[in-house]
Amino acid sequence: MTDQIQRFLFERTNVRGEIVTLERAYADVLDRHAYPPAVNRLLGELLAAVALLTDTVKLDGVLSLEVRGQGALSLLMAESNPGGELRAIARLDDDAELPDAPSGFRDLVGDGQLVITLDPREGNRYQGIVALDHDSLAGCLEAYFAQSEQLPTRLWLAADGQRAGGLLLQRLPDESLNQDDDAWARTVHLAETLGGDELLGLAQRDLLYRLYHEERVRVFEPKALRFGCTCSRERIAQALLSLGAEEVRDIVAEQGAVETQCHFCHSRYHFGAAEVEALLQGDDATPPTLH
Fold first, then answer.
1. Model's pTM, two decimal places?
2. How many domains, in total, are found in the chain?
3. Above 60 in pLDDT, residue 91?
4. Closest CA to 74 of 55, 59, 89
5. Which of 22, 56, 92, 180 could anchor a disulfide with 26, C-beta 3.0 to 4.6 Å?
6. Residue-wise pLDDT tens digits, 201-227
């Protein structure tokens, strides 16, 4: 399976779609952590979803999805950028126990919010929030598009701990493109016949043929996806500054230096005492050692 996203549209209609498949990038995320299988599956769905949304909104910047729950799984987070780089983490509540046999999304996360953040290279940061009122991640994302974007959007997501995949259909607002009044209802109905095993196991072109061989579908060049972390010296430095000078100096006094680790990729950064002081004084510090 190739890690990629495939855009397509239905000729003479205002219906568009995307298919994403992930294997290596998904494995690269899971290899850095030791989550339970149920969490691995949800993290795979989130990775597929963030890739689909990044291509959907055509964002030149970072798009992140955060599921903030009040259940045993308190946080799921995934990020994507136009370069096709993906990363994700999960956080389990230390005081809560996972259900023995969680049957779905809400069993793990409970009540909470889904936060969608668009952080463009230029322009203002945007954040949309919807309640976790649905029994699946796909349902919560569909509610976001209905409430915030007012675009009819359907998603199908699947993951099994080894592969992750997703399908998105969206009806665009420009009705002048549409010469087929039944196109939206028909394409959604056909997609609802799709099983999770097919979404994970079929090649993208085969999946499109399986669903839409009687439709006129225009398929675009796929885009490759991969795991990639955006941690950097600048981000780590800003995180240290946000702690405040007194707290950072206390850490140096106690430990002799500041050691920190990226939660996504586990890269370690070392800031010596002189580097920390120069940073706090606003001087150009020597780049920290990356282990």
1. 0.82
2. 2
3. yes
4. 89
5. 22
6. 999 999 999 999 999 999 999 999 999
